[in-house]
Design goal:
There is one protein chain. The chain has 274 residues and is of the alpha/beta class. It is 48% helix and 17% strand. It is built from 11 helices and 9 strands. Strands 1, 2, 3, 4, 5, 6, 7, 8 and 9 form a 9-stranded parallel beta sheet that branches. Strand 1, helix 2 and strand 2 form a beta-alpha-beta unit. Helix 1 packs across helix 11 and helix 8 packs across helix 9.
Length: 274
C-alpha cells in the first residue's frame, strides 16, 4: 500500500510539475545572399533557423523576404575587418572609420536587409576587438530595435562592453559548425552544440550554407533529440530582457527529492489519522 501511494504521488507530481524544460538550441546560418539553392533548402528545414544575410550580396532582399515570410528570424551579417588578409565584402567596417562613416554603412545595411531583427559580425576579429570601433557600431545600431550576436571570432572581443551604454542586448556564439567542411566534422560539432544545450540550457551554433552543412542539418534536424528544442535567436532576447538567460531545468534528482518529501508528508498524515 505504501509503495502504491509512493508511485501515485510521484506520478501526480510529475504530471503537475512545471514542464521539464528542454535544452534550447539556436542555429544561425551566415553568409546568406549568394547560394540561392542551398539557402532555400535551409529555410525550408525549419522556421526556427535564423538566417544572417550579407547586405551587399546579390540576393539579399529576396532571400531576407523569403525567410521572413516563412517565419525565420532574419539578421544582418555585417562585414567587419579581420586580423588577417582575406577577401572583403563591400562596406567592411574598420576601427579607423569615424562615427559618421560607420553610421552610413550601418544605415545602408539595415535598408538592404529587410525584416532584420538583429545583427552579427561577418569575420571581424580586428573590428570586434577594438572598443572605440564597436562603440561607433553600437551607437549607429541604437536607432533600431535590434540585438547583436557576437560571432566571437576573437577571444578579446569588446562587443558586450561597447553595447552597455546603448542598451543593446548581446548574445554570444557557442559553436562553429563547419570550420572543417566535412560532414563527419560538422556532425560532431552539431552534437557538441546539443551537448552544450543540455548542460547550459542554451547553445548558439553558427554555420554556413555549404552543401555539407545542408546535408548534416537535413539529417540532424529530422532526428533531433526529444530533450532538445530548436528555437529562434530572438526568443533568447525575451529571456535576456526578463533577466533570465534560459528557463530553469528541473532535474530528475530534484523531482525524486520532491516526491520523497511529499511521500513523507502523506505517510505522517496517515499515521496521525490512525
Amino acid at each position: 500500500m505504501r509503495c502504491f501511494i509512493g508511485l501515485l504521488v510521484i506520478s501526480l507530481l510529475v504530471l503537475n510539475s512545471p514542464v521539464l524544460y528542454a535544452g534550447q538550441l539556436v542555429l544561425v546560418i551566415d553568409d546568406f545572399g549568394y547560394r540561392q539553392h542551398n539557402e532555400e533548402q535551409i529555410i525550408g528545414f525549419s522556421p526556427f533557423i535564423t538566417i544572417a544575410v550579407l547586405p551587399h550580396s546579390p540576393n539579399a532582399k529576396r532571400i531576407a523576404t523569403m525567410a521572413h515570410e516563412h517565419g525565420n528570424d532574419v539578421i544582418i551579417h555585417l562585414p567587419m575587418a579581420p586580423m588577417n588578409k582575406q577577401p572583403l565584402e563591400k562596406d567592411t567596417l574598420f576601427p579607423s572609420m569615424n562615427e559618421s562613416e560607420v553610421k552610413v554603412i550601418v544605415d545602408n545595411a539595415v535598408e538592404r536587409v529587410p525584416y532584420a531583427v538583429g545583427v552579427n559580425n561577418h569575420m571581424g576579429s580586428l573590428m570586434t576587438s577594438n572598443l572605440s570601433g564597436m562603440i561607433n557600431v553600437m551607437k549607429a545600431l541604437s536607432r533600431y530595435s535590434m540585438f547583436f550576436l557576437d560571432s566571437k571570432t576573437i577571444g578579446k572581443t569588446q562587443v558586450k562592453k561597447a553595447a552597455l551604454d546603448y542598451n543593446i542586448p548581446v548574445l554570444t556564439r557557442d559553436v562553429f559548425l563547419d570550420d572543417k567542411q566535412t560532414e563527419s566534422a560538422i556532425s560532431q560539432q552539431f552534437d557538441l552544440a546539443v551537448k552544450l544545450a543540455r548542460k547550459n540550457g542554451v547553445a548558439i551554433a553558427i554555420g554556413h550554407p555549404h552543401p555539407q552543412t545542408v546535408n548534416v542539418l537535413r539529417t540532424k534536424l529530422a532526428n533531433l533529440p526529444a530533450d532538445i528544442e530548436l528555437v529562434k535567436l530572438s526568443q533568447l532576447i525575451t529571456s535576456v530582457s526578463d533577466s533570465v538567460n534560459h528557463k530553469p531545468k528541473i532535474t530528475l534528482k530534484e523531482i525524486i527529492k520532491k516526491c520523497e518529501r511529499r511521500l513523507e508528508e502523506i505517510v505522517n498524515l496517515k499515521l496521525v489519522d490512525e
